[in-house]
Amino acid sequence: MDKKKVYITRRIPDEAIELLEEHFHVEINPQDRVLLREELLEKVKGMDAVLCLITDNIDSEVLEAAGTKCKIFANYGVGYNNIDIVAATERRIIITNTPGVLDDATADLAWTLLMAVSRRIVAADKFTRNGAFQSWDPMMFLGRDITGKTLGLIGAGRIGFNFAKKAKAFDMKILYTGLRHNSKIENELGAIYVDKETLLSEADFVSLHVPLLPSTTHYISDLEFSMMKKTSVIVNTSRGPVIDEKALVKALKQGEIWGAGLDVYENEPEIEPELLNMYNVVIVPHIASATMETRTNMGLIAARNIIKVLSGEKPDTCVNMQVLK
């Protein structure tokens, strides 16, 4: 009997690919780039499963092209705003993601950005490499203290909680806001629930850990920046459109905030051009989960979900649970 077919839209760590190859015929995008639209529409045809990335736009047209044979789109990432969940559910196609496994890596990267911006690490590194360092200067690359300051956490889910745990080592006061109180972060870390306005006005550092929803799109814009301390730093490792990027540029230029650390962008991979030349911004290319261990485990979760679904079992991390009923 012919093996079932799985398509992977871009190369992922070998361990996950090898696991799928033990069970199925696997085809992988050979190009080191995102598939063009017409390529994606063609490649999903006749597949029993597709392992896709958050850079793939899986809309109703792609789901229709996959046809009734396709049982699952396994998204390689915790977010799934790249997939039309309603259309997938209507077609009885299972959608899965990879939550939990990237919490540590993402929180670690958020802290890396916070510290790099606060201590002006990137600018100082360039200065030193360019041979400009001639002698110690008491006014050279003055940054901001972190220890004992106030951290404002927007979103207190798994990653937000993990991020806040690390703040305790710096004796920080932790404020958080979100849709509801989180007794765990309050009881274990002493975090204090406040409204958005209070958090923005009191925090020395603001870190975003919310999903991309209509309610969180441009959650931080002109009004919010005007509430923040002129000495504050904002970090975003969640989703790019949570910050109004044009408003961010304006806030940085006018000194409404002191700095920003960004892993994600509003119109990714495009970035507001002015951000590229700002000394008080650290920018990295969406690498929050980019450790060997994390990216491998993400692939294994996606692979195991595919194996289970094509074997007639329920996946471990289903997004549209109603399809399983």
UniProtKB/TrEMBL annotation:
Residue span, D-isomer specific 2-hydroxyacid dehydrogenase catalytic domain: 6-320
Q: Which PROSITE patterns match?
A: D_2_HYDROXYACID_DH_3
Species this protein is from = Clostridium tagluense
Q: Does the keyword Zinc-finger apply?
A: no
**Pfam families linked:** 2-Hacid_dh, 2-Hacid_dh_C
Q: Which residues form the D-isomer specific 2-hydroxyacid dehydrogenase NAD-binding domain?
A: 112-288
Q: Which residues form the signal peptide?
A: none
CDD domains (alphabetical): GDH
EC number(s) reported in the record: 1.1.1.79, 1.1.1.81
Family according to the record: Belongs to the D-isomer specific 2-hydroxyacid dehydrogenase family. GhrB subfamily.
Query: Which top class of enzyme applies to this chain?
Result: oxidoreductase
Q: This protein is called what?
A: Glyoxylate/hydroxypyruvate reductase B
Please tell me one Gene Ontology term that the record gives under cellular component: cytosol
Q: Which InterPro entries match?
A: D-isomer_2-hydroxyacid_DH, D-isomer_2_OHA_DH_cat_dom, D-isomer_DH_CS, D-isomer_DH_NAD-bd, NAD(P)-bd_dom_sf
